[in-house]
Amino acid sequence: MDAAQFGEYLHLIGFKPTRCDLTALKTLLTRHMAALPFQTLSTVLGEPVPIDSGSIFRKLVAQRRGGYCYELNLLLLDALTLLGFEARPLTGSVIPNNQLEEAGARTHMLLQVTLQGQPWLVDAGFGGLAPTAPLLLESEKTQLTPHGQYRLKPHRDGLVLCAVTGATQQLLYTFDRQPQRRIDLQVGNWFVSTHPHSPFRTRLMAARAVPDGSRHTLLNTRYTLHRPDGSRRVRTITDAASLLDVLRSCFTVSLPQTDGLSRRLQQFLDTHSGGDAGTQSVRGEGQVQEPHV
Question: Name one GO molecular function term (predicted).
Answer without folding.
Answer: acetyltransferase activity
